[in-house]
Write a structure and sequence with these properties.
single chain, alpha/beta, Rossmann fold, 12% strand
Length: 154
């Protein structure tokens, strides 16, 4: 015989969780979708529209940096700064093939790219900007909780 207290357990917590910002370069449909989805899950998002890095994303401890335009003129500089910062997550939108030259250049400069997520996001199979953004935000959330992002069913 089981006893029930009448209180329902909820699968979420009402306790606020402090998370870093999500910094996105540059302004495009995927970046705008990341902003909408990440804002919905309670994350602060900064989209830097200037494809040259603008005034600088200035990542802080716990931030996530997402380079949505691997062809941006300052992509190497943005990645250099983000990887050298205390950012918790650094990612670039690009296939491994498209990113290879940029990664080779960074490695030749002595930049440690082992923590760089490329391609960014989880393998959900999505092709539309919102679907790609969902996979990136899911990866950021999973990483912030030390999870892999796999299915919850056992």
């Amino acid at each position: 015989m089981s006893t029930r207290t009448g209180e329902r357990q909820q699968p979420w917590s009402d306790e606020p969780v402090e998370q870093g910002r999500i910094l996105v370069l540059s302004d495009n449909p995927i970046a705008r979708s990341i902003a909408v989805i990440a804002s919905t899950v309670g994350r602060t998002v900064v989209v830097e529209a200037a494809d040259d890095g603008g005034p600088g994303l200035d990542p802080r401890r716990g931030d996530a940096v997402v380079l949505c335009d691997h062809d941006a003129p300052d992509a190497p500089g943005v990645l250099r700064a983000a990887l050298a910062s205390d950012a918790a997550y650094v990612a670039m939108m690009a296939s491994r093939g498209r990113a290879a030259g940029l990664l080779d250049d960074l490695v030749a400069e002595g930049v440690d790219v082992t923590t760089l997520h490329v391609p960014a996001g989880h393998d959900l199979g999505g092709k539309a900007p919102g679907e790609i953004a969902l996979s990136v935000v899911a990866e950021i959330v999973a990483e912030s909780y030390g999870r892999t992002g796999g299915p919850m069913r056992g």
